[in-house]
């Protein structure tokens, strides 16, 4: 039955269950309405050229990005593997070698389609 329920939006656990009109995560205790889950499932995250992104995709940056609070710059063409989609303004969570964990906006990346 848990296969038909969406993962927890907070911790991404797949062990969610329905309790009355709410969905509940046993791992982090987060509760949310099923209506919110269906609205989030309909929203697609697209890259700068319109390709649909999914968890685990590889993307590359289309412009230099200056890191706030630092003098570091992430250069155009930097390849980022194994992205994770999250709700919010910065809709991609990823780990960039040499930089660390960071949130990116999908408008600044292009999906790399590997054959």
From TrEMBL:
Belongs to the YjdM family. This is Alkylphosphonate utilization protein. Residues 4-33 form the Protein YjdM N-terminal domain. Coiled coil: none annotated. It comes from the Bacteria. Residues 45-111 form the Protein YjdM C-terminal domain. InterPro entries: YjdM, YjdM_C, YjdM_N.
């Amino acid at each position: 039955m848990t296969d038909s329920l969406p993962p927890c939006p907070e911790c991404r656990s797949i062990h969610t269950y329905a309790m009355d009109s709410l969905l509940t995560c046993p791992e982090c205790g987060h509760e949310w309405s099923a209506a919110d889950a269906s609205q989030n499932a309909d929203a697609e995250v697209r890259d700068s050229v319109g390709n649909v992104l999914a968890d685990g995709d590889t993307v590359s940056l289309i412009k230099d990005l200056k890191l706030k609070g630092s003098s570091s710059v992430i250069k155009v063409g930097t390849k980022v593997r194994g992205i994770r989609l999250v709700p919010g303004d910065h809709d991609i969570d990823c780990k960039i070698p040499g930089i660390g964990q960071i949130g990116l906006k999908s408008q600044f990346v292009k999906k790399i389609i590997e054959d």
